[in-house]
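Exercise 7. Predict the joint structure of the components listed below.
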Amino acid sequence: MRTSDYLMVALKDIRRQPLRSGLTIFALIISTVILVLMAAISVGGRQAITEQFGPSSGLTSIAVTPNQSNSSLSPFGGIQEVNSHAAKLDDTTVTTLAKLPHVNSASPQAHIWELANFSLDGSDKQFVAQAEGVPSDAKLPLTAGVAFTSNDQANVAIIGLSYAKALGFGDNPTQLIGKTINVTTQKGYRGIGATIPDALATKTTLDAFNQQATTLKVQIIGVTTTGPNQNELFVPIGWAHAIRTIHYYDAGMSKQTDQIAENGYTTIKVMVDGTANVASVSSAIEALGYGQVSTLSQVQRLQQLSATMWMILGAVAIIAVVAAALGVVNTMLMAVSEQRYTIGVWRACGARRRTMVALFLTESALLGFIGGALGVAIGMFAGRFVNEYVGVLLQNQGFTLTNIAIVPPWLVGGTIVVTTIFGIIAGAYPAYRAARQDPVQALTE
Amino acid sequence: MSSRPNDTLIHITDISKKYRRGHESVDALHSISLDIYKGELLAIVGPSGSGKTTLTHIVGGLITPDMGTVEVEGRPLKGRRDKQLSSFRNSEVGFIFQNFSLIPYYTVLENVTLPLVVAKMAPRERRELAKEYLKLVGLEKRIHQRANELSGGERQRVAIARALVNHPQIIIADEPTGSLDSARGNEIMAILETLSHTRGITVLVVTHDTKLAARADRSIHIQDGHLIKEESHANQ
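Solution:
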């Protein structure tokens, strides 16, 4: 028989029992939708991990912190034990770390607590400012604009790509370069740009000052790529010192305290010469008495979690497909039982046993294919729904995932192939029974 | 058409067949030997359960005998694998059954093209050929009707068209008039006579109707699996 004839005969038989075939296909559709959604969410999760940590070169970075115990830096949060003897992260530490074997560079980073939020000039949209001071040689990966030219550049910033996206410039971040953002400080800010009451100020004046925030006009000169920096606002480290330097009067004398110099940097970013050496450098850092979290270890933990999730979700999906395949077995057994006479006619007309096997396998494969194809289509639609609605909900809660469910082409093709193969497997025993049937007995019943 | 010994198409030698019925073994055929000639219309007569249908199923390659041999054009059926036996049924034998053996949810055309589908003939070619044979049996205007929408006589004519469409040498008609009234039965018998006498097809008709059997060139009588009588009607 010709392939087209196998398909025509199989389709005719599927149409012969529309309700039964429809229910079988419906079960396959449901299981396929589950399979596609589970896989799409898993793929989306993996992509989110990749996006979060940027290109593979980011895997060689280690964040050094003062505390030995540093679980709070993990992406899952957790408790953090304070080490009262922890050494301060200062320029000496930067130099020490830079001299460690396999370390390419060590770059300090200071969190600027004084900067509370910011908005694009002319826009009402306010964002929490996750502001960090970095040196000009920090080598932030940029998608638009330029790096800082010196540590002492003032009133300039590089913003994370997530902010650019939230501001509506995700597709063309270059348009943000040169625009001004208004950065609002915490109330009672006493750093650079603040109008600080003089030594003779009254209590009322001081109270009013403590309730007052300062707005700093800052020009955007760069936008980061996706990765660990995408949710932050960077300023030059020199200007960060100026922002974090408190100006005050003591006994009528004007005084100032640089809090970064006093408390040290928040973290020092160490770049290792290769992922193979990350573990040894991490050990060396710990041996110096510092805490550390490597991007590689975080990615590995996330990927482990992702793999475990994939296995669990995959098992659920496979169970669903197997259950649907059992439905196909039942349908095909019914079809063979009902078509004993038809099988006898085919055999009397010269059809071989192998032809009968192929006929029933084609029918079960078609059931699998139709169920799979429709299931994938609905699964893709469901994935889009998840991205549009659930994604927005998560974004409102501060998550920056772009797509939760991603259906790559391989998933579309692979799922249809899998359901078709399951259909063939499910049809194997009924097809065998059809082939073994005695045509004479079937025709004379 | 008179039968001639040197025109033997089917040579049956000493065939026996037993069936299992529960724990019992039933002799369906017992040591039957017979020659069937090219273009002959042979009636196989006998009461129900006598073994006549079993004989035609063996000749048609649907079942194999326990003992003995069947040769068609000098080539034995015994030892042929499923592929060869199926090919034999497809190209050399046409079956007509008492219950018509049509697939009820297929159209008339689809039923007739069935052997051609098995033979991998191109769709257009097989449709034309099937229409030709449906015209022969007078059903050319009902090709798109489902088989279950036809009368008994029409169904049997569809079955005849299907049996003929692959140009077989042998037509095996098992009680072809059994489900029909006498007028329709006579029509069907007339078609079978024409096939045998004008197209040279060997036609084996299983019947228990002696009147119909008398219209054949020859008739053999089977009882309890034994060939008990052979009659030639060629000169009648």
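Discussion. The first strand of chain B starts at residue 8 and ends at 21.
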